[in-house]
Write a structure and sequence with these properties.
The complex is a heterodimer of chains A (267) and B (255). Chain A has 267 residues and is an alpha/beta fold. Chain A has helices spanning 3-6, 52-59, 99-109, 114-127, 143-156, 173-189, 201-207, 241-266, and strands at 12-23, 26-37, 41-45, 67-72, 75-76, 84-87, 161-165, 193-197, 210-215, 220-226. Chain A contains eight helices and ten strands. The longest helix of chain B is centred in the C-terminal third of the chain and has 38 residues, at 163-200. Classes of the chains: A alpha/beta (267), B mainly alpha (255). Chains A and B meet through strand 6 and helix 3 of A and helix 7 and helix 8 of B.
Chain lengths: 267, 255
C-alpha cells in the first residue's frame, strides 16, 4: 500500500491498522490496513475462507484480533461498541419475537425509552416495506422479508457503522437484486459508514465506493479498487460499460488465484 | 390453524369414543362378577357419593398438596439448574453422568431409602413426587437450551447484550417450549410418584383411598378412585400441552 493511501483520511470513521488474526497456527489474515469514510461503502470480496467474515466480526468486536488495531471514531474496538450494527447472512432474527419485537431489540438494549421505541419502530418497518407484518413471526415470512426485518433492526439504532455480512447470500436471485437496490435507496436517505462483505463480484462493484480484494494465504489486502460509478446507483448502472469493466477487473484480480489453484489440482 | 368445523368434529369424535368406551365397560361389567369389576354407572354413583360425604374431596386435597409441592419444586429447581448447566460447561460436563444415571434410575427403588432417612409424613412424600418429576424437567431443559444456535448468541453480543440480557431475551424464551415438554412429562411421572409414595410411605390421600377400598372389597370405590386420578392426570397433562402450545407459537406449524 502506498504512503499516500496510508495517510490518515480526515473523514475516516473506521481505521484498521496492521490487523492480523490467527487461530493457533492457522493464520487467517495479516497486515490488513483499511479506512472507511463516514459516508462511504467499502465492499470486501475474496475467495471462501479468506477471512472476510472474520474481519467483519473483528470490526464488530465479536472476536478479538491477534495483532494490530481497529478504531471507530478514535475509540479502540475491544468489545462491541455502541452504534455499530451488523446484518447477518443467516438473518439472525429471534424466532420467538415478532417482527416488531425483533426490530425493537437493538433499541431496547441501547436503553431507548419504550415510548420512543414505539414511535421509532413503525418508521423502520415502513422504510424496509414490512407494513402489515408487525405482528408476524419470522417463520411466517419469506427469506427476503426476514432480511428486510434484519436490516430494519440494524438501521433502527441509527448506526454510525453498518456491517453487512453477505446479507443477501441466502435469498433467491430476484429478491437479492431487489434488496440491493432497496439498500442503496435507504443508504441515500441515511448515508453512513458501511462495510459490505460479499462473495459476489457484481454485488461488490454495485454497492461499493471502493472494492477491497482480500487474497492470499494468509490473506491480505491484495488490491483496492475505486468504483467511479455515479450515484445513485440503479438498475441502469448494471448496463454501463464502466460497470462491466470494473467487474472484469475485480474478477481477474480474484480469479488469478482460483485458476492457479485449479491448475494445481489438475496436475 | 384448525378451522372451527374441524375443531368441533374433533370434540364430537372424542366424546363419542368416550361414550362408546363407557357403554362397553357397562356391557362387560353386566356379564362379570361385581366382586371383580364394578360397572360404569355403579362407579360413577360411588364417586358422587364419596364426593358428597367428603371422603373423596379430603383425599384429593391431601394428595394435591403433596403433589403440587413436589411438582412445583421440581419445575422451579429443574428449569433453573437446567439453564445454569446449559450455560456453564464445566458444571454440565462434571454432572452429566450423574444426571443420566439418576434419570435412568427407577425412582421407586429409592422409596425405602427415603423412608429410612425421613420417615413418614408430608415431606418424604413430596420428595418422592419431586424426584419422579425433576429429572424429566432438568434433562429436557438442558437439551433444549443447548440446542440454541450460537448465531443467536452472536446477535445478542453484537447488540451489546450482557449475560442478564442473554437470559431474558434469548435463553429463557428459546428454552421455554423444551422445558414445557419436560414439565409435561414430569406431570405424568410425578403422579406415579404420588401414588407410589402414598402406597409405600404413610398411607394418605387417593393412594390410601385405593388401598382401603381394596381392603374393604368396595370395588366401585376402588374403580372410582382410579378413575379420579386418571382424569386428574389427563387434565394436568392437558394444561401442560396448552402452555406448550401457547409458548411455542413461534415454532410454527412445521414442528
Amino acid at each position: 500500500m502506498s504512503t499516500a493511501e496510508r495517510a490518515l483520511r480526515a473523514d475516516a470513521r473506521i481505521r484498521i491498522r496492521e490487523l492480523g488474526k490467527h487461530y493457533g497456527p492457522l493464520e487467517v489474515f495479516r497486515d490488513v490496513n483499511l479506512e472507511v469514510g463516514d459516508r462511504e461503502i467499502v465492499s470486501i470480496v475474496g475467495p471462501s475462507g479468506c477471512g472476510k467474515t472474520t474481519l467483519l466480526r473483528c470490526i464488530d468486536g465479536l472476536i478479538p484480533a491477534s495483532s494490530g488495531t481497529i478504531e471507530i471514531e478514535g475509540e479502540k474496538v475491544t468489545s462491541p461498541l455502541p452504534g455499530i450494527a451488523m446484518v447477518f447472512q443467516h438473518f439472525g432474527l429471534f424466532p420467538w419475537k415478532t417482527v416488531f419485537a425483533n426490530i425493537a431489540y437493538g433499541l431496547k438494549l441501547a436503553g431507548v425509552p419504550k415510548a420512543e421505541i414505539d414511535a421509532r419502530v413503525p418508521r423502520f418497518i415502513k422504510l424496509v416495506g414490512l407494513n402489515g407484518f408487525e405482528h408476524a413471526y419470522p417463520y411466517q415470512l419469506s427469506g427476503g422479508m426476514q432480511q428486510r426485518c434484519g436490516l430494519a433492526r440494524a438501521l433502527a439504532i441509527e448506526p454510525r457503522v453498518l456491517l453487512m455480512d453477505e446479507p443477501f447470500a441466502a435469498v433467491d436471485a430476484q429478491t437479492r437484486e431487489i434488496l440491493q437496490f432497496e439498500l442503496l435507496r435507504i443508504w441515500q436517505l441515511r448515508p453512513t459508514s458501511m462495510v459490505f462483505v460479499t462473495h459476489s463480484i457484481e454485488e461488490a462493484v454495485l454497492m461499493g465506493h471502493r472494492v477491497v480484494v482480500l487474497k492470499g494465504r494468509p490473506a491480505g489486502v491484495f488490491e483496492t479498487i475505486a468504483v467511479d460509478l455515479p450515484h445513485p446507483r440503479t438498475r441502469a448502472t448494471l448496463s454501463y460499460p464502466r460497470f462491466s469493466a470494473l467487474r472484469e477487473h475485480v474478477w481477474t484480480t480474484l480469479m488469478d488465484e482460483a485458476r492457479a489453484a485449479e491448475l494445481l489440482l489438475q496436475r | 390453524m384448525l378451522t372451527r368445523a374441524s375443531r368441533w368434529s374433533r370434540w364430537a369424535i372424542s366424546l363419542l369414543a368416550l361414550a362408546l368406551g363407557a357403554l362397553l365397560w357397562q356391557a362387560v361389567a353386566s356379564r362379570t362378577n361385581p366382586a371383580f369389576l364394578s360397572s360404569f354407572t355403579a362407579t360413577a354413583a360411588r364417586i358422587a357419593e364419596l364426593a358428597a360425604n367428603g371422603v373423596l374431596t379430603d383425599a384429593l386435597r391431601s394428595s394435591l398438596a403433596v403433589y403440587l409441592t413436589g411438582l412445583s419444586a421440581a419445575i422451579v429447581i429443574g428449569v433453573t439448574i437446567g439453564l445454569v448447566l446449559a450455560r456453564v460447561r464445566l458444571l454440565r460436563v462434571a454432572l452429566e453422568s450423574y444426571i443420566m444415571l439418576l434419570y435412568a434410575t427407577p425412582m421407586v427403588a429409592l422409596i425405602p431409602f427415603i423412608m429410612s432417612m425421613m420417615g413418614f409424613g408430608f415431606a418424604p412424600k413430596a420428595l418422592v413426587v419431586f424426584l419422579f418429576a425433576f429429572f424429566s424437567v432438568l434433562y429436557n431443559t438442558i437439551e433444549g437450551a443447548r440446542s440454541l444456535k450460537p448465531e443467536m448468541l452472536e446477535v445478542a453480543y453484537s447488540f451489546r447484550s450482557g449475560e442478564w440480557g442473554v437470559w431474558r431475551d434469548v435463553l429463557v424464551p428459546y428454552t421455554l417450549p423444551f422445558a414445557l415438554t419436560g414439565i409435561r412429562q414430569g406431570i405424568g411421572r410425578g403422579l406415579v410418584g404420588l401414588v407410589a409414595g402414598e402406597f409405600f410411605l404413610s398411607g394418605s390421600g387417593i393412594g390410601l383411598l385405593i388401598m382401603q377400598s381394596e381392603r374393604d372389597f368396595d370395588v366401585p370405590a376402588l374403580y372410582g378412585s382410579i378413575v379420579v386420578i386418571a382424569v386428574l392426570g389427563a387434565a394436568l397433562m392437558g394444561v401442560g400441552r396448552m402452555l406448550e402450545n401457547r409458548f411455542a407459537a413461534w415454532r410454527g406449524l412445521a414442528r
